[in-house]
Amino acid sequence: MKKFDKDRLLLAAAGPALALVSAFLLTMIVLAASGVDPIDPLRIMIDQASYEDVQVLIVNQAGIYFLAALAVAIGFRMNLFNIGVDGQYRLAAMVSAVVGAKVALPGPLHILLIVLVAMVTGAFWSGIAGILKARRGVSEVVSTIMLNAIATSVIAWLLLPKNLGVQPAGSNDLTTGDIPESGWFPALSLPGGDIYGFTFVAFALGIVYWFVLNRTRFGFDLRASGASESAAQASGVEPKKMIMTAMLISGAVAGLTGMPLLLGESHTYNLSFPLGIGFTGITVALLGRNNPVGILFSAFLLAFIDKSSAGLDQNGYAKEIGTIMQGLIVIAVVVSYELVRRYGIRRQQQKVGEELAAGHALKTDNKEVAA
Question: Which one is predicted more confidently, 367 or 287?
Answer without folding.
Answer: 287
